[in-house]
Amino acid sequence: MSSNNNNSSMQNSPCGQTHWGRDRLPHKQASPGFSVWSILKKCFGRELYKIAMPVEFNEPLSFLQRMTESFEYSELLEQAAVKDDPVERMKLVAAFAVAALSSNLDRLKKPFNPLLAETFELDRTKENGFRLICEQVSHHPPISAFHGESVNGGYIVEGCVNPRLKFWGRSVEIKPEGSVRVRFPKRDNEEYIWSNVDCCIHNIILGTLYFEQYGDQIITCDKTDLQCRINYKAANGPTDIQLHSLLGYIINKAGQKVAKISGRWCHEVYTYSMAGEGGQPLWQVKPRPPHSADYYNFTEMAMALNEMPRLDGGNSTRSANGHLASTDSRFRPDIRLLEEGDLNGASAEKHRLEEKQRETRKARGKNAEWKPLWFEKISDTYFRYLGGYWDRPVDMLLPDIY
């Protein structure tokens, strides 16, 4: 066991600043020194999370960090919380669900699999009015849980994801199994629930590489008897006009359509009345940095997620109370080395951490049930936050996972 600590030797020196923090990584993305096909041909039809992949297949973020990107447009929930019209609230919740997918565009490398008991905190109470804690609550199957809350009490968001990845010869299929729940405490805990939609990276080996989200997403709210049914259109290729498009309707208890939404999950969402009046914008994506392609196609938010706490008090994704849990993803040496361009070092550390996790699991016993630190299991698709993370003692002992 090890106590919380802040390792000053891991500080970054950002070249510039954005609202989120540093505006780029310490090192540009490196090209793999091998044939991608030489690795993937061994993976046909298999779950990729079960296979040890070279670090060249990774982006320098943990999946826990990647999950927090769904909060980039948290202001949509702030807006929804103060709307008196339930249809307007549903529109904005739907826009949040769509916007949560936008950072996936062109993100063609996989995040690192979190280690069991790994955590990631994102405290944006001063800048964006929310804070968020994530934890890897299960290793087999790999399940990541999160709990986010508005500092003014306007909303609570929680959920869990079990990402299933398979390679099918020309494409990688991603099924992020799990659900998301949004509650508005000031509206008698009015709750909205939806599941994640599937996605696919096409033409991995030959042809024009492209990414798409597809399938149906149903957002339900029992208190208002409203549903929003969104269909993410499947495309027939990278030039298909349907690529990235979506169409949805808000439906009342009687089964009547009361509003329409449409747009593209990577660009914008508009709402229309059923009378066919002109569309009103609900959400529009923020432009990515001009140098994004050099850094794994990261958004401004993603660039800053692995930044260590800054000592000058400027913008960063640091903890507002000045200390991180020793289990925080920012302390992972393999991710840190990859973002610094040290592929050999990252590979060695990734292997060491995987072996350490195996030894820890072996010592714990094959049939011993793991108890998460900050969440409790309610069902396979719901882990409830227990509380206490933000008030924990500075010297609290936590699992030594790194």
From TrEMBL:
Chain segments carrying region Disordered: 1-24
In terms of InterPro entries, this protein maps to: OSBP_sf, Oxysterol-bd, Oxysterol-bd_CS
Highest taxon, organism lineage: Eukaryota
List the Gene Ontology MF annotations in alphabetical order.
Answer: sterol binding
Q: Which organism is it from?
A: Tropilaelaps mercedesae
Q: Does the keyword Transport apply?
A: yes
**Pfam entry (one):** Oxysterol_BP
Q: Where is the composition biased (Low complexity)?
A: 1-13
Name listed for the protein in its UniProt record: Oxysterol-binding protein
Question: Which family is it part of?
Answer: Belongs to the OSBP family.
Gene3D superfamilies per UniProt? 2.40.160.120, 3.30.70.3490
At the highest ranks, the source species' classification is: Eukaryota, Metazoa, Ecdysozoa, Arthropoda, Chelicerata
Any keyword Ribonucleoprotein? Answer: no
